[in-house]
User: Fold this.
Amino acid sequence: MTGKLTLTEQEWLERLGPEKFHILRQAGTERAFTGQYESNKAPGMYKCAGCGAPLFSSETKYNSGSGWPSYTAPVAPDAVDEHVDTAHGMVRTEVRCAKCEGHLGHVFPDGPREAGGLRYCINSASLDFEGDQT
Assistant:
């Protein structure tokens, strides 16, 4: 993805507010089953709450039972970046927005086999939803 968005930490805080800042800029995690998009079934596009970049389509969203919105794939291969995360004594794969480098969540290899086997487990607070206008 081209056109990286770079702001100071103060500019991010002013833009996002405390909760979204904690998730997107400090790699925080919302509590399971509390996010506004966890059970959303409406058709549309999930975009980065930090920069508005399209990240996940409702067509790849499924109910994983994990308590966070889950997707089988990003909207495009270059929409997200993946990084090794060794925080909290675990080794996981962190998912970040490719445009603004905001923390979104993690990807795990326990998704639906028929859809590639991946589960993108994403914080609702890192997303904005734009429903289909049809």
User: Anything to note?
Assistant: The mean pLDDT is 94. DSSP finds two helices and nine strands in the chain. The longest strand covers residues 80-85. The radius of gyration is 14 Å.
